[in-house]
Design brief:
The complex is a heterodimer of chains A (345) and B (530). Chain A is built from 8 helices and 12 strands. Chain A has 345 residues and is α+β, with helices and mostly antiparallel strands. In chain A, the strands form 3 sheets. A 5-stranded mixed β-sheet of chain A has the order 3-2-1-5-8, with no helix packed on it. In chain A, strand 6 and strand 7 form a beta hairpin. Chain A starts with a helix and ends with a helix. Chain B contains 16 helices and no strands. Chain B is globular. Classes of the chains: A alpha+beta (345), B mainly alpha (530). At the A-B interface, helix 2, helix 3, strand 7 and strand 9 of A face helix 3, helix 9, helix 10, helix 11 and helix 12 of B. The structure holds copper (II) ion (CU) (2 copies). One copper (II) ion binds next to helix 9 of chain B. The site of one copper (II) ion has 4 residues of chain B, from helix 9.
């Protein structure tokens, strides 16, 4: 039985996870015992005192027993107060920021997560954090409510437009941890996913260092990537080939970017319509715009769709695509265009 | 009215028009019942569609369509079914009879409440027809201000329906205070009425708040006055306070009447005096009182202050005590009884089983640190369905089977009743027990699609929903069948002691031939004195 329940368990990847699970388990057993008392009592009474014939058996005249009721109330009161207190103690720990935390700005927007490190490095839907070091996410929303939720950490915090909220955690397990948006935010709420990658502190340092050096040299990441051995794949420039590997084709890099930059929240490449049009078969074909004009989708049109999405809006869709001006580098736009081109026929 | 009218039962005579203009609380109760049951069917269809989408990963409906489905499921079930159904349908019918009165205190107001309810519902239906709403039944801002869907129709519908609830509540409070038959003291009232009384108080006090909130929301949408949208200088979290200030007490508007029914049914089918009459009666009032000061437990991660979280968590824990006393007392009532397992009793037992799970899982969510993990996951969805459906709906079904012979003078078919009860019970647990595990595994609610690790449990949950659907289909069919073909019901098929069973089935227009005089409590079972 206990073994059976194990398959539903999540890894305990933050300092709080174990503590929250401990209280969860305590409440679980308290509940289980209370439930069994009630249900076993009920089933036993139903069986023991079931009506056997057509006419009811005579029953005793019992109207209650105040001492039992009072004792049930008192015992219960004590238990729930204990649960309350335990929950409160752990909660204060959850919300306390540790001094010297690594700060990361997080912006939730329909329907992706943006991260910005103090050195100015920006990522979308993926963030790298060091293991064992306290991290403080300072979060805001560009539009509606969202909620930053990491089940492996057992932590979540609503992200509120017009105010900052914060989420503190210390990761204790390396690996990829799923981030969900837990507060309903419209069409692609269930696709507002991100990955939190926990790595050893040295690896994190290296990852930031390499980027800082690149920045100071003015090297474009797409080129610098080839010379960098330490870059964990998937972050910032997921398509960057690792040292020694043959350089990938632009369309392949574009494909990885398409996922990494959160395009998949709104666009399929299979013909299925999500928030935005499917990008299958768009390139080289005519597109109906909402001002009833038509345009043939060429490289410039695709590029403009990324930098100024509101300029030409596809008929039948809301103008909700965020602009990628500033977030996508020229090379990245080239790669994406190459990828969308490859979906053209 | 002529003297011959007294021999006619309330169903006889008059066409549609006489129903639509009736002042008879029983007819109004039946009209509420038809309306709410119809809405229940619609809300249920939306629920089945929601589960169908979640049967497998990958889209079946578009995300927007799915979002409308779950919004409409929630809004219809909450505002058009579960809040009104027991008080307005069964309460209207039985409250006056159980206190030995001819009617409610203000019969015209009663009819007006029905019309207001229908107008409000019509607006919500209009919202469905004009493209639907996609905000979730909670209408959280600023999404609900920016959403392009029919938010205005829906919220105005909620606003208008609120008046119906307030007026009905007022009517009931006055009726209980003023129209009790001689000898019917407060402490001789059936526990169903204590529950209805507590519910009415909440309805009168809390409903105006949702009214104001929806008006503010509409003003913000139409006139761009910044209450809730930070773009206009408002505060989105303020909306949540307003919303839950009503909607948490509303949870007790939903559950208390169900508890009342269970108190009746358990005693009758155990032939035992209720265990702890006063504790059950006053715990209803205690729950009503506490319900007003716990709303913030819906907002532990909303960014409200830690002090608020401290207080709301503490106060919420207190609700457990009166609630547990009730469950304990119902179970204790069966001790040394003579238990008759007819369909109403099966539903009452199902209530105890499911509601206990619903209540206990509330402890997880009331504990601050655990709620940080479980909030807005499927754990919450499972929890409130165990309370609302496992509690209120099971209570309603117990009451419906229990009082059906009285209301329509026909017995429902017992075998089919038990079959559909079993289907619903099994289906319910399959549908919602699985969701506790999904929530514990971190699956957020209101998700159109999910990650592969959640697939098996979701599939099981959807299969469960089909069992529930089949159970209700059978039930609707046999209820309608029984109206025409059911065995004629005697005046008191269950050998119950409350006043409604002393008159004909179905009752005459005036309920009692002469005013009853009450000399004992409602549950004087027990021949063996100890
Ligand atoms: Cu979301
Ligand atoms: Cu609540």
């Amino acid at each position: 039985m206990i073994q059976f329940f194990k398959i539903f368990e999540l890894p305990r990847s933050s300092t709080m996870a174990g503590k929250i699970d401990a209280l969860y388990d305590f409440v679980f057993w308290v509940s289980m015992i209370s439930f069994l008392i009630i249900v076993i009592g009920m089933v036993y009474f139903v069986w023991r005192y079931r009506r056997r014939g057509v006419t009811p058996e005579p029953t005793p005249y019992i109207t209650g027993h105040t001492p039992t009721e009072v004792s049930v109330a008192v015992v219960l009161f004590i238990i729930v107060m204990a649960i309350f207190y335990w929950g409160w103690v752990d909660y204060t720990e959850i919300i306390t920021s540790k001094p010297g935390s690594l700060e990361i700005n997080v912006t939730g927007r329909q329907w992706l997560w943006e991260f910005e490190y103090t050195n100015g490095r920006k990522t979308v839907n993926e963030a790298l954090v060091p293991k064992g070091q306290p991290v403080k996410l300072i979060m805001g929303s560009a539009d509606v409510l969202h909620s930053f939720y990491v089940p492996d950490f057992r932590l979540k915090q609503d992200v509120v437009p017009g105010a900052y909220t914060k989420l503190d955690f210390t990761a204790i397990q390396t690996g990829e941890h799923q981030v969900f948006c837990a507060e309903y935010c419209g069409t692609a709420h269930s696709k507002m996913l991100a990955k939190l990658k926990v790595v050893e502190p040295e690896e994190y340092q290296k990852w930031q260092k390499t980027w800082e050096v690149e920045q100071s040299l003015g090297v474009q990441p797409a080129q610098a990537a080839e010379s960098s051995e330490s870059r964990p794949t998937g972050i910032e420039n997921p398509a960057a080939p690792r040292h020694g590997a043959a350089p990938e084709l632009p369309a392949e890099r574009g494909k990885a970017l398409f996922t990494a930059k959160g395009c998949t929240a709104c666009h399929s490449v299979t013909g299925q319509i999500l928030v935005g049009p499917s990008l299958k078969g768009v390139f080289g074909h005519e597109v109906d715009l909402n001002d009833d004009s038509r345009i043939t989708a060429d490289e410039n049109y695709i590029r403009e769709s990324l930098t100024d999405p509101q300029l030409k809006v596809v008929k039948g869709f809301q103008p909700v695509m965020p602009t990628y001006k500033g977030t996508l580098k020229d090379e990245e736009i080239n790669d994406l265009v190459a990828y969308i081109k490859s979906l053209g026929n | 009215m002529s003297a011959t009218d007294h021999t006619k039962n309330y169903l006889q005579g008059g066409g549609l028009w006489s129903w639509l203009t009736t002042l008879d609380h029983k007819r109004i109760g039946v009209m509420y019942m038809i309306a709410t049951m119809f809405f229940f069917a619609i809300g249920g269809i939306f629920a089945l569609l929601v589960r169908l989408e979640l049967f497998k990963t990958g889209p079946l409906f578009s995300p927007d369509t799915y979002n409308k489905f779950f919004t409409l499921h929630g809004a219809i079930m909450v505002f058009m079914f579960i809040i009104p159904v027991i008080p307005a349908a069964l309460g209207n019918f039985f409250l006056p009879i159980q206190i030995g009165a001819k009617d409610v205190a203000f019969p015209r107001l009663n009819l007006l409440s029905w019309y207001i309810f229908m107008i409000g519902s019509f607006l919500l239906v209009l919202a469905v027809l004009s493209g639907g709403v996609d905000t979730g039944w909670t209408f959280y801002t600023p999404y609900s201000i920016r959403s392009a869907t029919s938010v205005i129709f829906a919220t105005l519908g909620v606003f208008i329906m609120g008046f119906s609830g307030i007026l009905t509540g007022l009517n009931f409070i006055v009726t209980i205070h003023k129209l009790r038959a001689p000898g019917m003291t407060f402490h001789r009232m059936p526990l169903f009425l204590w529950a209805i009384y507590a519910t009415a108080i909440i309805q009168v006090l809390a409903t105006p708040v949702i009214g104001i909130t929806t008006v503010l929301l509409v003003m913000e949408r139409v006139l761009h006055i910044g209450f809730f949208d930070p773009k206009l200088g408002g505060d989105p979290v303020l909306f949540q306070h307003f919303f839950w200030f009503y909607s948490h007490p509303a949870v007790y508007i939903m559950i208390l009447p169900g508890m009342g029914i269970v108190s009746e049914v358990i005693t009758v089918f155990s032939r035992k005096h209720i265990f702890g009459y006063h504790a059950i009666a006053y715990s209803s009032l205690a729950i009503a009182g506490i319900s007003f000061i716990v709303w913030g437990h819906h907002m532990f991660v909303s960014s409200q202050s830690p002090l608020a979280n401290f207080l709301f968590s503490l106060l919420t824990m207190l609700v457990a005590v009166p609630t547990a006393i009730k469950v304990f007392n119902w179970t204790a009532t069966m001790y040394r009884g003579s238990i008759w397992l007819q369909t109403p009793m099966l539903y009452a037992l199902a209530f105890i089983f499911l509601f206990t799970i619903g209540g206990l899982t509330g402890l997880f969510l009331a504990a601050l640190s655990v709620d940080v993990h479980l909030h807005d996951t499927y754990f919450v969805v499972a929890h409130f369905h165990y309370v609302m459906m496992g509690g209120t709906v099971m209570g309603l079904l117990a009451g419906l089977h229990y009082w059906w012979p009285k209301m329509f003078g026909r017995m429902y078919p017992e075998g089919w009743g038990k079959l559909s009860c079993s289907l619903i019970f099994i289906g319910f647990n399959l549908t919602f027990l699985t969701q506790f595990f999904l929530g514990k595994m971190g699956m957020p609610r209101r998700y159109h699609d999910y990650l592969p690790q959640y697939a098996p449990l979701n599939m099981a949950s959807t299969v469960g929903s089909w069992f529930i659907g089949a159970g209700f289909l059978i039930m609707f069919t046999y209820f309608i069948w029984s109206l025409f073909k059911g065995a004629k019901a005697p005046a008191n098929p269950w050998d119950a002691k409350t006043l409604e069973w002393t008159i004909e089935s179905p009752p005459t227009t005036h309920n009692f031939h002469k005013e009853p005089v009450v000399t004992t409590g409602p549950y004087e079972y027990g021949e063996v004195k100890i």
